[in-house]
Structure prediction request, 143 residues.
Amino acid sequence: MKRIYVNEEWCLGCHLCEYNCAFANSGKSDMASALKGRPIFPRIHIEGGDRVTYAVSCRHCTDPLCVKSCISGALSRDADGVIRIDRSRCVGCYTCVLVCPYGALSPGEDGVMQKCELCLRNATGEPACAAGCPNRAIVYEER
Prediction:
């Protein structure tokens, strides 16, 4: 299965992955109207400090704790290995946030949990974070 991999040595900490992610999942066709003057809710987050920065996103675990712990059944693992959220079933209990060892889940604009789904529903063939990374610190590949 192809996954997102991050090379923290190449990460500039520019946050472009966050903006590209928020735009790709906004449902709008124009980045300026989707993001200008409003808070963004990306499904990938830049962490770190002065010396090391890195992008945090879902690892699509083979034995996902988030799926096992979801009390509403909103999280599931597809046959292709992608962990997905049925936002209509999420009750916002934050259990998935507590059990994810990678910190990959976060509340969206409406308080419902969100996470990286590899841009497969709004696909351009590659996740928006990887496609928009100027230094290619984020790659989408099979290893």
